[in-house]
Amino acid sequence: MLIIGIAGGSGSGKTTVVRKIVESLNKKVAVISQDSYYKDSSHIPVEERVNINFDHPDAIDWDLLCSQLADLRAGKAVKQPIYSYITCTRSKEDTIHIEPAEVIIVEGILIFSVAKLRKLMDIKIFVDAESDERLMRIIYRDILERGRNMDTAFNHYLDTVKPMHLQFIEPSKRYADIIIPEGGHNKVAVDIIVNTIEKALR
Fold this sequence. Notes:
This protein is of the alpha/beta class.
């Protein structure tokens, strides 16, 4: 079993890289998303939930993520939580059943900022992209998926996303074994990663 961490800033193309790796590997792959492990905020008044900083490490339940990842390495299935950005709450009834696999990919903006999580990874990949390109993707996503308009999405980027990226995400790049420039459009880098994974599994 290989556990692969794929980090990078919001809008850097991590999801595209993950998809291309999964499509290229002739192996069973389980994907674990950091976004599923945001702490439940149902105890916070609805009007105050708009102030939650999703780009800060304190927003994530790292203990649960590390515990479930360790269980998968030990051959045990886990129940990955389901989190809603709209309500800022974790589903109390529904979970996603994840079976152990030959390759487990952990994906998220902050996953290299936590030492105990890094120690569980065999390969660490950082997806890099220009800030202007990331900004366009973030604004598009926030409007489409998170109920923001153009002004609130742009202000959110300036007030939260950009400073958190500079404080936590960009510095975590130094822990990467591989850095992919140009995000998911870098076919050469993706091919090299796929070959590296297949060789390691052999």
